[in-house]
């Protein structure tokens, strides 16, 4: 491609000229991703803000689309290559500077979430946002999707930790938003606007992130239920106490089977549903998990175990984190990310299985039960169009159920290309038009990750 | 005014037709406010969203400016009447609905902050944002300024608690942003853009606010220091421990004198500086305040007292909250709201007194020491132009010091009219132009609170 030739001249050493290697940048972790070949797009591996500026300036001059890419763990297609586009990877921009007095981290977008956690921990600090893909996903991608994960029930989402950004806009202008101070309200909050914008407004080249004191290691309860109704009763029982557990994760039987088929993480066979529940309250975690255990037993758990040590607890959490690769190993599927008011979670869970049965598609149901944010999957065989259509109809039906329950089509994965056609139905035409106008302010040529997030 | 006549016909019973009563809506709590007479503007007391729609539709048709008004506690002039404008008060829109399962409050903009706290407490829940004016300021105003206050060091600011908004835009269109669910990332985050927009984009008619479990009653330490340098040493000593106190407030000697002249709140005479420090950690507050007391003594406090009971602690906090009226009683002044990185707080405090001495103006120095956000005042006599100019120069000098220390001109009060000429210098021309374009998307006629926040 001429784009590859041009950029290789402008950015020597940054452009992937071998189509075999470029092919490795074709897809993200979206189950429905279909890979372009490595000669259908151009890969720039930016090492610096200046590399990003050069790339975005070139892209605007030549009207070439740009797909920003981080750890490629998106499940909605927001990081997949587009034909003729520049895939702009910031994966190697991994600088981390911790300021323990201000309790901030100033990081490059390529830093892996778990690596930032590890560096912060050396200073007695924590970066809470915790997607299941923490060991693979980048902070830049976390910011692009406003990623959540396993901590949100107590600690919130990525947006709650971003104080300021350096962003390169289409055309190459460098914009700085937000602040390094604890508070600051000068001007409109454009930091929040950029967080969750799915690469459609610009490319993050640096982020100032708020850190918090490192908590005690959490204690973990595993509760096994005979069916999902009882599991939901367990979730509701946890809600009767005043404080918030630091983690409340749900997995149904088919989810557990997918995880255990991927590796033995210590989950029980033949469970209708399990809950993983944690407390990290200093001085209270021990009594908390005992109380959780009692509440969950009373709610109908047939087995309740407090993880005996850190190793056992970590293994269970690792199992939860292995769910997405486990599902991928099980087969082709579409993954949901609906979020409903927590009081309606039981209805959502019931709908997943009813819808799966109605369309005769395999389902799994798992997710962040404390937030009302579930990631059900509907399985199909890509060589069987009938099965694929059935899975798509099941997916559509579940989105409508989420809306009927007062929820949203995406709690944390984002809209991507997967749900872009749905957005106007959720937000309304007037609102989508307003959002298009916001996008046009930043990206008048419409070349930033086109067709993702908003179209 | 014809506007008054027109709107009285459109909104019978909502328009203040008596200029004497209208005059009560002329100013906010800005020390430099100069009152218009009640016949120079029109006051609409909206009772509903529809009243706001009617008012904003009329305003757009007639190109009349609109000043949204809540509890009129702004210190930056953002709520002062403008000549010929409609002052649109939402003070009587005070509905509150608490959903204890979702842990949200759905409120009208006129609800007083302290009233919301009291209602939430009945459900075992808390609304943390806590401006010193909590007993007078409205949630709509808190949202307009992204208000902070005494809790921020541990609990953050208003933006951290706003899940969604209903906003009437110029021309009368009703817009809904955000969500009622715990998480949700469909579309750009326009909720965050509206929070802190100082009434320049639209009028909030309903807010969905996140609540948290009600904590234990905090325990309070009062530490008295011989001078401000020792006081700063005390603040730094607190920072050596891992967890975050729930409140760290600084007052210098002249601030204490102003408070005690306003009422006896139990503060000591002849202190160089005092710190109020709280812990609300369940099960740890007692040991926390003992450790604070030891750290503060070691840092040079001449007197350290743990409040013996709730009454004594409440009286001290009430005294801190009485600071602004106490300063007003002391005399004419300009109030700062600079925020610097917490590690530079000592330099900022030193600069306040150096600048005051250099310009020979009276100063007070107080504020949210845990955040690096101070509210120093420079006093003058409005009948003495020389003294006023000196105070203005001192104010300007302190803004520059804050910038030199890596800070911002406003931590929480907002830009208002007071600092609008400074904004471009802090953000840069390109950024201010981008923000003007954002404003124009919402308010193409430029009639929403013109000259405040951004100009």
UniProtKB/TrEMBL annotation, chains A, B:
The keyword Nucleotide-binding does not apply. This is FAD-binding protein. Its cofactor is FAD. Keywords: FAD, Flavoprotein, Oxidoreductase. PROSITE patterns: FAD_PCMH. It comes from Ornithinimicrobium pratense. One of its GO terms (molecular function) is oxidoreductase activity. Residues 36-214 form the FAD-binding PCMH-type domain. Signal peptide: none annotated. Belongs to the FAD-binding oxidoreductase/transferase type 4 family. InterPro entries: FAD-bd_oxidored_4_C (IPR004113), FAD-bd_PCMH (IPR016166), FAD-bd_PCMH-like_sf (IPR036318), FAD-bd_PCMH_sub2 (IPR016169), FAD-linked_Oxase-like_C (IPR016164), FAD-linked_OxidoTrans_Type4 (IPR051914), Oxid_FAD_bind_N (IPR006094), Vanillyl_alc_oxidase_C-sub2 (IPR016171).
């Amino acid at each position: 491609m001429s784009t590859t030739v041009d950029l290789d001249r402008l950015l020597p050493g940054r452009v992937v000229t071998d189509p075999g290697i470029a092919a490795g940048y074709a897809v993200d972790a979206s189950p429905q991703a279909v890979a372009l070949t490595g000669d259908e797009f151009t890969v720039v591996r930016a090492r610096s803000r200046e590399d990003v500026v050069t790339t975005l300036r070139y892209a605007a001059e030549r009207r070439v689309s740009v797909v920003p890419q981080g750890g490629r763990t998106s499940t909605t297609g927001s990081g997949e290559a587009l034909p003729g586009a520049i895939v702009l990877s910031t994966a190697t921009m991994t600088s981390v500077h911790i300021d323990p007095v201000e309790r901030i981290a100033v990081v490059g977008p390529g830093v892996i979430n778990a690596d930032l956690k590890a560096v912060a921990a050396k200073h007695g600090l924590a970066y809470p946002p915790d997607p299941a893909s923490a060991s693979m996903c980048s902070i830049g991608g976390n910011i692009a999707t406003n990623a959540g994960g396993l901590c949100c029930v107590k600690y919130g989402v990525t947006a709650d930790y971003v104080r300021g950004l350096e962003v390169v806009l289409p055309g190459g202008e460098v914009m700085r938003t937000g602040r390094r101070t604890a508070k600051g309200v000068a001007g409109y909050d454009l930091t929040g606007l950029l967080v969750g914008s799915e690469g459609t407004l610009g490319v993050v080249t640096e982020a100032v992130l708020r850190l918090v004191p490192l908590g005690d290691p959490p204690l973990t309860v595993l509760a096994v239920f005979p069916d999902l109704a009882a599991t939901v009763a367990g979730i509701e029982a946890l809600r009767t106490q005043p404080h918030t557990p630091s983690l409340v994760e749900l997995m149904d039987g088919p989810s557990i089977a997918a995880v255990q088929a991927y590796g033995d993480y210590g989950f029980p066979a033949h469970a209708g549903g399990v809950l993983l529940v944690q407390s990290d309250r200093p001085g209270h975690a021990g009594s908390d998990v005992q109380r959780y255990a009692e509440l969950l037993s009373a709610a109908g758990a047939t087995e309740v175990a407090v993880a005996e040590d850190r190793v056992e607890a970590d293994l269970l959490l690792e199992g939860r984190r292995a769910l997405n690769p486990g599902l991928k190993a099980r087969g082709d599927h579409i993954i949901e990310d609906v979020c409903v008011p927590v009081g309606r979670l039981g209805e959502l869970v019931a709908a997943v299985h009813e819808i799966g049965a109605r369309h005769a598609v395999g389902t799994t149901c798992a997710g962040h039960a404390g937030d009302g944010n579930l990631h059900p999957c509907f399985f199909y065989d890509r060589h069987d169009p009938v099965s694929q259509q059935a899975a798509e109809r099941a997916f559509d039906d579940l989105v409508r159920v989420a809306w009927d329950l007062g929820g949203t089509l995406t709690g944390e994965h984002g809209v991507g290309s997967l749900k872009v056609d749905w957005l106007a139905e959720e937000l309304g035409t007037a609102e989508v038009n307003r959002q298009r106008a916001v996008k046009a302010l930043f990206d008048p040529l419409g070349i930033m990750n086109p067709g993702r997030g908003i179209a």
